[in-house]
Request: fold
Amino acid sequence: MYKRKNLRNRKVALERMFRENLMRAALAKSGIGAKELAKVIGVNESTMSRKMTGKSDFTRSEIQAICQHLNLTAEEKDDIFFAV
Reply:
């Protein structure tokens, strides 16, 4: 997911809202990898790769499944998926 950000020189840039580094930390903490998480949310590995690199967005149901599987708090969920 992307957010438009106005720059001083009036150009508009896209700023990523998903924080891959926090997601990878949560995966490491839980002891699972992206491949296993892909199975949890029902996508193939290449789709998961696109989601992890911010090229594709996670759906609401995928976010819910991830939060349940990784036991993420509401604050952790917001930090990972809805960074501003």
